[in-house]
C-alpha cells in the first residue's frame, strides 16, 4: 500500500495535426514518452478559430482506440460505417479502430473556444484486427461526484471510495482503463485509488498540482510510479487534471502515423490495405 511517486514529467510540446490543428502533445511526442497501454495524449485549447478550423478531414486508423473528450466546443465525427456523432462540451467519443476505420472530425463552429483531448489507447495483438466500433457518450452519462474541495468525473473504469463505487460509462475493455477528470480548489488535496496492476499518468490542464513533493505545472503530464493510489494537492490557483490508468499489454509497439501494430510487416500490410481500399474490409 503506497501512494504513487512521479517517475517522469512530460511537458506538452506544441505541434499540429490533421489539416493544421494546433495542439500540445505530451505522451507520444516520441517513442520513449509512452506508457503502456497509452500511446499518445493530445490537448487542444484555443479561442482563435484559425487554430482549429481546418479540423481532421478523412483519415484512417488501425490497431488501437482513440478517445476524444471535449471540454468546450462542437465537433462532428463521421466514419465509413455511417456513424455520425455530435461531440459537444463535456461529451466523449470512444472509437475502436480495430482492423480499420476511416473518419473525419470537423469543427462545427467558426468562432469561440475549442478545448479538449484526444487519447490513444493500444489494443493487444488478439484485438488489433477486430471490427471497428464507435460509441458516443453524452455528458449526462458521465457521473460527477463531489470531492472534499472539488469534484471528479469518471469516464471509464470505476473508483471505490469507502463503501461507495463510482462507475464510468466505459467498461469491459481488456486494458481496463480508468479515465477521470478531477477539479480541485486552491490548496486542497485528494486521494484517489489507482489499481496496482495499472500503469498510470496524469495531465494538468489548469493550475498546478503537487504530487509526492514534486510540482506538475499546467500543460504537463506526469508518469506515475507503482502504488495503489494517487495523493495530489492543488497549488494556489487550484488545479484541473486528467487521471489515466490502464493494464499494460507488454507487446512490441510499431507505429507508423495512424497505424499501430506489433511488427513492421503488419504496418506494411496496413499501408498496402489502405492504398488498395481494403483497410476496413474483413
Ligand atoms: Mn482520428
Task: Give a quick precis of the structure.
With about 280 residues, this protein is mainly β. The chain contains one helix and 24 strands.
Provide the β-strand percentage band: over 45%
Mean pLDDT: 95
Helix content: under 10%
Total helix count?
A: 1
Largest sheet: 9 strands, antiparallel
Give the radius of gyration.
18 Å
Give the total of beta strands.
Answer: 24
Could you explain the architecture of this structure?
The protein has 282 residues and is mainly beta. 4% of the residues lie in helices and 54% in strands. Strands 1, 13, 14, 17, 18, 19, 20, 21 and 22 form a 9-stranded antiparallel beta sheet that branches. A hairpin with a 2-residue loop joins β15 and β16. The longest helix has 12 residues, at 264-275. It starts with 5 loop residues before the first strand and ends in a 7-residue tail after the last helix. The protein binds manganese (II) ion. The site of manganese (II) ion has 5 residues, from β5.
Amino acid at each position: 500500500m503506497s501512494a504513487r511517486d512521479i517517475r517522469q514529467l512530460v511537458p506538452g510540446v506544441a505541434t499540429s495535426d490533421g489539416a493544421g490543428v494546433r495542439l500540445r502533445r505530451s505522451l507520444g511526442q516520441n517513442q520513449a514518452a509512452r506508457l503502456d497501454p497509452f500511446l499518445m495524449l493530445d490537448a487542444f485549447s484555443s479561442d482563435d478559430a484559425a487554430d482549429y478550423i481546418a479540423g481532421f478531414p478523412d483519415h484512417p486508423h488501425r490497431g488501437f482506440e482513440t478517445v476524444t473528450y471535449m471540454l468546450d466546443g462542437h465537433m462532428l465525427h463521421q466514419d465509413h460505417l455511417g456513424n455520425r456523432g455530435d461531440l459537444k462540451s463535456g461529451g466523449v467519443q470512444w472509437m475502436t479502430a480495430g482492423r480499420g476505420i476511416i473518419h473525419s472530425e470537423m469543427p462545427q463552429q467558426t468562432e469561440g473556444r475549442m478545448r479538449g483531448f484526444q487519447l490513444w489507447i493500444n489494443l493487444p495483438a488478439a484485438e488489433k484486427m477486430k471490427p471497428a466500433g464507435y460509441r458516443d457518450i453524452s455528458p449526462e452519462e458521465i457521473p460527477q461526484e463531489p470531492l472534499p474541495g472539488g469534484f471528479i468525473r469518471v469516464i471509464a473504469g470505476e473508483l471505490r471510495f469507502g463503501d461507495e463505487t463510482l462507475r464510468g460509462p466505459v467498461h469491459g475493455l481488456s486494458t481496463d482503463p480508468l479515465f477521470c477528470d478531477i477539479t480541485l480548489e486552491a490548496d486542497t488535496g485528494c486521494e484517489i485509488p489507482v489499481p496496482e496492476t495499472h500503469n498510470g499518468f496524469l495531465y494538468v490542464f489548469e493550475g498546478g498540482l503537487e504530487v509526492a513533493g514534486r510540482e506538475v505545472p499546467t500543460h504537463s503530464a506526469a508518469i506515475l510510479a507503482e502504488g495503489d493510489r494517487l495523493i495530489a494537492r492543488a497549488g494556489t490557483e487550484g488545479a484541473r487534471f486528467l487521471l489515466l490508468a490502464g493494464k499494460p499489454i507488454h507487446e512490441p509497439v510499431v507505429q507508423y502515423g495512424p497505424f499501430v501494430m506489433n511488427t513492421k510487416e503488419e504496418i506494411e500490410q496496413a499501408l498496402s490495405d489502405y492504398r488498395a481500399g481494403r483497410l476496413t474490409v474483413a
